[in-house]
Specification:
Arc Repressor Mutant, subunit A, 2 domains, 11 helices, Four Helix Bundle (Hemerythrin (Met), subunit A), three-stranded antiparallel beta sheet
């Protein structure tokens, strides 16, 4: 993966003269969702401010927003860090996802061809990344897949909430030592869900998603559990 600060500098034009803390927070959140910012990374005001050419006050407000979203944590006398999530965080995330994404899937009964195409395209994105052997990109495509599911809700508030949830979830994925072993089975599962939705089999898709969450949650919790000798 490229150095995350170099990648951040390429987003400078997105901030522009009318920069806001919300836009800076969005850029940093995207870096977390894409797996560029790892748990435990210290965020330097000087370095990020120079990369995006924003003031310290703007940056501090962006940090405050992301701390409220549980993506960052401020440690007294040490600075601001990307959060490392706990097993309890994982359980709560999946509890919330079951409510959130299941509702989006149920809404697919009225999905438009364009909304279903966005789901399918995210599946194909993951398959292309897998063919190229880029398993970090497969993980990012998986985030896009679940964001596309949220799009079935047709609610901007719903989709904004999903962006925050997925950024937090990506921080958990880093506990998996082998990205290929973790992400590879979900390529087929995402394809199956997309096909069920395309066929209008919403109830079957919701049931499949429920099992999907059960498996993923257990994998992550098992990876976070210390091996006892």
């Amino acid at each position: 993966m490229e150095d995350w600060l170099d990648g951040l500098a390429t987003r400078r034009a997105d901030v522009g003269r009318s920069s806001t803390a919300e836009r800076v927070a969005e850029i940093l959140r995207e870096h977390i969702t894409e797996g560029r910012l790892l748990p435990g990374t210290r965020l330097s005001e000087e370095d990020i401010g120079a990369a995006l050419r924003v003031s310290r006050n703007t940056l501090r407000e962006a940090f405050r927003l992301l701390t409220h979203e549980r993506l960052l944590v401020h440690e007294f006398n040490r600075g601001v860090f990307v959060r490392t999530l706990s097993a309890d965080d994982v359980r709560d995330l999946y509890r919330f996802r079951r409510l959130l994404e299941s509702a989006a899937v149920r809404a697919a009964v009225d999905a438009t061809p364009a909304e279903l195409a966005a789901v399918r395209e995210s599946v194909e994105e993951g398959e292309r990344a897998a063919a190229a052997g880029d398993w970090y990109a497969v993980g990012t495509a998986n985030m896009h897949f679940h964001q596309a599911l949220a799009g079935l809700s047709r609610s901007p508030r719903f989709e904004d909430t999903m962006r925050q949830v997925l950024a937090e979830l990506r921080l958990v994925f880093h506990v998996m030592a082998d990205p290929w072993a973790f992400h590879e089975p979900y390529l087929q599962r995402n394809r199956e869900l997309s096909d069920l939705l395309a066929e209008g089999r919403v109830a079957a898709a919701e049931e499949t998603l429920s099992h999907y969450f059960d498996v993923a949650e257990k994998q992550l919790l098992d990876a976070m559990t210390p091996v006892r000798t």
